[in-house]
């Protein structure tokens, strides 16, 4: 099951303890919200850098009106809304066209995350992101950026046998599609907790000819028990051992998890290998949007300075 099915400060100081490599790695980071979690944020300008891309997760049962209103609010506060378009909750091409039109009328949306979604049974004619992309509607409506799902640790919803055969086949199709669409494309991945599997996956798909930039999913600060619950539910594989090992240490069990270790390792690898496929970091704020944004501000230098603080 996808994390999308579970996901729900006063001005922060401009000074931070972040390293230069980490600050560079966090430049242009994005973050995920849902309508009901966005309602808890008084003003995104107080917590996010100007122009931050804000994904809006569309969970089954969320009215399109709530999604559109959230996109409009994010746009009005100076940020780039990127709503999810989950294939399995979109009835048909007419519905997809209607949703796109509503987003554009209300919030000038030109970016979207196109994915299958965590619903087991499709409500209509779509069951995959590929089918929605094949409609041509995103190009027809002038989308400038289309993100699609990436799975550093595989996806048993797609490959129940534990292989990556179907996932790899889909990646090859998306790579080919990126060469015939006018939109910029990237892979937005599920979250992981261990840099090793991420690096191995990114290098492997690059060797297989997948050149789509990677926006790596990272879980923001949260209670360890919360992250373990999400990790198990969302099918995170090898890197779950990082959390399990931490849970065995009583001194760490009571402390909130922070993503400094995985991000520092990835930042160092990127600095040593500039051609490495990770382009940006995408945060899943499982411990809260404000908590996640505050952590980035304190660890990411200028990369995390809120719009209100830099105005």
TrEMBL record:
A single MF term (Gene Ontology): methylenetetrahydrofolate reductase [NAD(P)H] activity
Listed name of the protein: 5,10-methylenetetrahydrofolate reductase
Superkingdom, taxonomy of origin: Bacteria
Enzyme class: oxidoreductase
Alphabetical UniProt keywords: Oxidoreductase
EC number of the protein: 1.5.1.20
Keyword Oxidoreductase annotated: yes
